[in-house]
Amino acid sequence: MSLTTDLESLESDIRSAIAGAGDERALEAVRVSALGKKGTVSERLKGLGAMTPEERKTAGPALNGLKNQIAAAIEARRAELREADLEERLKTEGLDVTLPVRPQQQGSVHPITQVLEEVIAIFADMGFAVAEGPHIETDWYNFGALNIPEEHPARQEHDTFYFNPKPDGSRLVLRTHTSPVQIRTMETAKPPIRIIAPGRTFRSDSDQTHTPMFHQVEALVLDETTHMGHLKGCLEAFCKAFFEVETVKMRFRPSHFPFTEPSMEVDIGCHWEGRELKIGEGDDWLEILGSGMVHPNVIRAGGLDPDTIQGFAFGMGIDRIAMLKYGIPDLRAFFEADLRWLRHYGFSALDMPSLAEGLSR
Description:
2 domains, single chain, 361 residues, eight-stranded mixed beta sheet, two-stranded antiparallel sheet, BirA Bifunctional Protein, domain 2
């Protein structure tokens, strides 16, 4: 059989198979059997290397031409199948324009989640990384490493959730703050350190402004040169960005925290316009967070040398600043799963916090 007759017979068989393909899956099987790595046309193309130069001059163009024709026929058949499928869908599928409008999406982003994302966006822009730690902590990480003495009131059961004692007498606790993350970070990272630690915390307290479980975010900056001026500048930049104001009036009051020295409470200026609270200016003050330079004992507990490393830390309640920013009067409502409350205070899933476009809606 001559080459021409052989290729004509092969083309006829393949075209018949293409025409008989009833869907795209069957058509793909035809393509693989003809043009795939081990297809009938591909196998003949592999045989060109064994031919003489004279035979190759004739067989090469013929085989490549057959390959192109088969590929074109397959694409043409594919287009026919897709058009037929579309026609069938148009006949069987329809849209009843007399149906009522679908209700709007009921879900919303919880204000706590939204504010957490806002805080993370602000500090990420300043170069802070997010660090996390366990909710259940040892006495060492929650108290001892943070320079909190044995007789401190925070260690009492009326303020802290303890687990049952272990055989050795030690007791695990539900962390009362996210400060243990600072120690865990110092143990695993080398300065310079710049992290925030957002998360849930637990204390035995419940009223209009306190709940047994709440959210905090703490920040830690450690290197060889960081000082109080950096702390003030960082907090001022945060308050301007978070409350979305051009200027902010702040004051730093001396205080005492076991894990910082010196320690300061930070207040922000405010005033009332009718029933609306204006943040950033005015003659009234609101306490928003605690801060200070990291105590040398804490740096030492984290495995670093306080003679060469220094820095600042601060912490604030996410629930509290969410109440201030969005005018939420009762902290307990955050955890009641009231759909009406969530519809009123919740955020759209598309309201992603961005410093460039504005944090809140």
